[in-house]
Design a protein that fits this description.
Helix content: 10-25%
CATH topology of the largest domain: endopeptidase fold (from Nostoc punctiforme)
Largest sheet: 5 strands, antiparallel
CATH superfamily of the largest domain: endopeptidase domain like (from Nostoc punctiforme)
Strand content: 25-35%
Number of domains: 3
Radius of gyration: 21 Å
Shape: globular
Number of helices: 7
Number of strands: 24
Amino acid sequence: MTLHTINQPLVPLIAPTATTPTAAASDYATYITPENTSEKMVNDVSSQLETQCLFGELFDVTHSDGDLSTGTLMTDGYHGVLPTAALSGVADQTGLTAARTMSQTTTRYEPCNPLDTSVDSHSATHRVVVPQTIVTASPSVTSRAITSLFFGSCVTVLEHDSGCARVTINGEYGFLPDQAIAARQDTVDDWVCVAEQFMGRPYLWGGRSAAGIDCSALVQLALSRAGVQLPRNSSDQYRALVAADHRDPAELAARFGSAGARPGGQRQGGQRQGGLRQGGLQRGDLVFWAGHIGIMQDPGQLLHANAHHRCVATEPVQEARRRIKEHGGGDITGWSRPLPSG
């Protein structure tokens, strides 16, 4: 195991589909050309972007061939290819074990601190807990901007000064607002409010940041703030989270009612509202389709990063359900309550 830290704000991790290093280099060069915009990524289902690595995360290199390195992102076990230049020197590996790494085929999740310093980011003390923040050259708001960092990025705080935290960014001192970071052990109870901070941020297939995010990354990042470690893809999240009785067609029909029910409609006696069993869902529940996942903000409203709105948006869950079904995405396949209700 050869661990390195990600030294750039956002690094694409592409699928290692090429059979030779030369072909892999060609694949990556094709991906990073300027014409590969977010809109094209949404429409190009053959895109090789698998996920993105954030500043300070650990990457286990299994093969390096000059400009490109192949390996595994330790945060969630995703395997792929990235530029070697995006990696800093060998990280402190004390206490790190491969057994603690999430894999893409994980069938469970751990309601523990996924950002334990021995697992994910060696000596980092804090992580960014806002969608995006600016690192400046001094605490002054008028000082030079060094770079941006995104939610989940890991940094080591050296000291606090004038409402800012002093950190090092690739050998250069920089300052982050204190309110933009939190100690890596800190968690929040209402993790849905974390997801709500991403409202309006653009949708990007394979995206994992405020610059562009997909449905499963929104869930993964927001739940990490509550101390829950999840796999990266919605299909793996489904296998990890959805119990057998929460995917049973009869149970789903009883809980969600008819896909044709109009939002806001209420049956006699108040038993159903918008086609949902009243009280059947609550804030923080997850709703799954084949290849898609959303977060319930309340018993009827769904928050999700989606290609229809091209952003993180909120809408009645029955509206989303009907539209997804009409466009060939099928009906709801399951639901989950990843954390106990308070």
